[in-house]
Amino acid sequence: MNYYFRILRLAKKYRKEIFLTITLNLFVVVFSLFSITVLIPTLKIIFKNTVDVSSALPYSGLSHIKEYLESNLNYYITTQSQIIGKSGVLVRILIFGTVMFFFKNLFRYLAAISMAYIQIGVERDLRNKIHAKILQLPTRYFNDQRKGDIIAKMTTDINEIQWALLGSFQRLVQDPLMILLTLTTMIILSPQLTGFVVIFIPIMGLLINRIGNTLKKPSGQAKEAMGRILSHVDENITGLPIIKSYVAENRAQQAFQYTNENYFRYMIRMFRRRELSSPMSEFLGSMIIITIMWFGSQLILEKGQLEPEVFITYIALFYQVIAPAKNISNAVFDIKRAESSGERIFSLLDAPDNMQDAPDACVKEQFDKELVLQDVCFSYEEKQVITDFNLTIKKGQQIALVGQSGSGKTTISSLINRFFDVSSGKILIDGIDYKELKIKSLRKLIGYISQDAILFHDTIKNNLLLAKPDATEAEIIAAAKAANAHDFILATENGYDTNIGEGGSKLSGGQKQRLTIARAILKDPPILVLDEATSALDSESEKLVQEALEKIMEHRTSIVIAHRLSTVKHSDRIIVMREGSIIEDGTHDELLAQNGAYQKLVELQNL
Fold first, then answer.
1. Residues near 150 by Cβ (< 8 Å), separated by ≥ 6?
2. What is the spatial distance between Cα 335 and Cα 160, in angstroms, rounded to a whole number?
3. Contact (Cβ atoms closer than 8 angstroms) between residue 526 and residue 397
4. What's 153's DSSP letter?
5. How far apart are the first and last CA of the chain?
6. Number of other CB atoms surrounding residue 77 within 10 Å
7. What is the distance, to the nearest Å, from the Cα of residue 508 to the centroid of all Cα atoms in its chain?
8. What is the model's pTM?
């Protein structure tokens, strides 16, 4: 129940709505009881079982409440029958019952609306918290996570919590009130009969709770299987060209069917157990009804301690208890099932974030002198990726990082962007340790262009404004021109207001990369990190992108990760890396003269 109460704590901001919901549910219960107990005077008149009373008994305490109510009811029927006749009294009673039913359903509707505001509000707040956490967590957290599983937590798991956990709150408010007040009324009508009821209800609750405890495991397994299903779909859509190229449709379908079959089995197990609650509670309810009818008939026929109209009303009231009891049992099932969703969601919300600002972190607004990587080491999953890395980058320098795949170039770019923190050593900007700066302040000084042109399903203009939300139209156009992107943008359907599709799917690779360069130009950062920005382009696109890159790198400090050595031979320094360490350092000519690792890389590319 821990996760249930954690989710309910999210509803604290809705205190007024909660109080209103409880109040409205109380009215529902009161009017429901009035609408049922109208049976007593109705049946008294029909059965002609009214005792003529010339004066009602005065109130003499709760211990004599039944006699007091019965006396006053008989007195009302007696006096009013003399004035308007028994038919007129019956009409009045039925009108009163109709009014009670109307108000019962009116308040029931208002209570549902009030509860819906709480449910949907908590769902919204929870989804906002999850999305904010996703944006807050370091990028390395997602290396071990399935994207489909994270999407499932924001969709199916939250929906489960919305209608199961929060919906159960409505039942756990209204139904206990209904049971409590109905049992109170039943005790007033017949304490003997009510004794049987209070014996059976706890037995029913214990049996249903026992079954509910067995639901949590298959429910959690079903949620995980749904996450894997979404991951399969996402991966198969993204990799569809490769699947078709390798004629692997059958294999992809078999993998999907295996996961889907697991989900089917878990859901069948869960529903098989869940659906047992309804017939079980109905059977137990029927047993109680039979017992009540037997015992009630004894009180009427042999002992004369119960009037027929009271007994019929008592049966009707007991049916009012059965439905709430079943609802509570279903609520227990829903809570048990949704606990697994709560556990999955809070596993994300509780994920540690080691990339938070230090309490005394400061803001840095400009880059003045140098960027220094000092004895930097970095490990990932106990594997050493960067070892004793030392590099000083002066303001205005263009530094190139080259080396074979897996040498640690991209890891260095991630550390400079502070996507990760160093395992040991330091990164300093103008003598200030990265960890002493506010992360957002640091990243505003850095422009990052990755090998994969990352764009969003939005207009060209909005993709550019990501870098500078308050940019003017003139600034946007100037950035696009500097990136050699303005002409192709004007050629699109709606110019800068053209939607480029998911990930920029409506654009070519070169066009997408030029947009990312325009975005970086619009940001106008003093430091640029370019991670193989031209490696995936054809020759013509590479030429246009390279021209744009040369423009943006002018008068800026640049760290360029390059696969094609021809694009970095004019760099101020070229750093050759192998297995996370620097093995050579110098200009293009100096490194060629050393006839070492760089020379071999050049020869391989010339081949």
1. 134, 142, 227, 348
2. 10
3. no
4. I
5. 66
6. 21
7. 34
8. 0.72
